[in-house]
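Practice record 12: protein with 6-O-phosphono-beta-D-fructofuranose.
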Amino acid sequence: LKSIAIMTSGGDSPGMNAAARAVVRTALYEGVKVFGIYDGYKGMLEDRIVELNSQSVSDIIQRGGTFLGTARCPEFKQEETRKEALKILQSHGIEGLVIIGGDGSLTGGSLLSDLGMPIVGLPGTIDNDVWGSDYTIGADTALNTILDAINKLRDTASAHRRIIVLEVMGRKCGWLAMMAGIAGGAEYVLVPEVKYDLNKICDELKTSYDNGRRYSIVVVAEGVGSAVDIGKEIGEKTGIDTRVTVLGHVQRGGSPTAEDRVKASMLGEKAALALLNGQSNIVFGINEGKVVAIDLHDSVNNNKTLDPELVRLARVLSK
Ligand code: F6P
C-alpha cells in the first residue's frame, strides 16, 4: 500500500485525536502517505481530503473533540452515494481507510468495504456500545465527567434533602449509566436493558426518607426515556422535593483520560499496521486489556449486551 486515509465520523469522543495521531504517525513511520478526510462521510463526498504530515497531528493528544471534524451523514445509506465516495477516494490513490466512530459510522464503513475499499474500524464513541469490544474510545473520559457531576450533585442534594434524577447519554446502551451508578454510588440506575418498577422505587424512596435519608441519586440512561418525565413522576409519587439534571453534551467533551489516550494510541497503531499488512474489514477493540480484531460485519450486525454482573453489583451495593 502506498497511501491510506483516516477519518472520524458520527458523534465525537475524547481520544479520537489520540487514535488519529497514532494512525498518522505509524503510517508515516512505515513510509506510507496518509490523507485526512475532514468532517466524516459528508466531507468525503465533498472531497475535503488533505495529505497529512507528522506535524498535522502534533499538540492534539490532550484535546477532546476531533481535529478532523465529524458529521452525521444519512445520505451515505444510499448505494449511489457510496459509489460516488469510492470514486473520490480512488482519485486520491487511497487504498485503505481507517474509520474512527460508533456503530452507525462503522456500518457505513462496512457498506463501503462491500464496494471493495479496504476498511479498518476503530470504536470511537462515548456510548461503549460497539459489539465485540469491551472498550470504546472516549467512554472512560465521559464516565469521569459524569462522576464529577454526581459528586457535585450529591453536595446540593444532601443540603436540601432532595432526590436528584440525572440523565446521561448512551443512546440505546446503559453502560455509561450503569458504570456511573456503580462508581458514583447511586441509589438507582435505570437502563434500557433492565425492566424497572417506578412505583416500587418511589415506595422505597419514601420509606428511606421517612427513616432519615438525606438524599438519593437516580441515574437514568437516555435510552430509558426522559429524565424530566421520570423526575416529575418521582416527585409527585413520593412527595419528596426532586430535581432533574440532563447532563447533555458536556459528556462528549474534555481532555481525554490517560486510559483513553493510551488505548486509542494502541488501537490507532494496530489499525494502520493492519492496512499496511493487507488486513482489512475488521474493527480493533480491547478485551481483557488486549487489543483484539473483530470482523467488521459481525461488529455492526450484532448488538452489545450489558454485563449482568454490573447490573447485579449496582443492585447489591445500593441497598
Ligand atoms: O453516540 C454518542 C451520543 O453522544 C449519544 O450518547 C447521544 O444519544 C447522541 O450521540 C447525541 O447526538 P448528537 O450529538 O447528534 O445530538
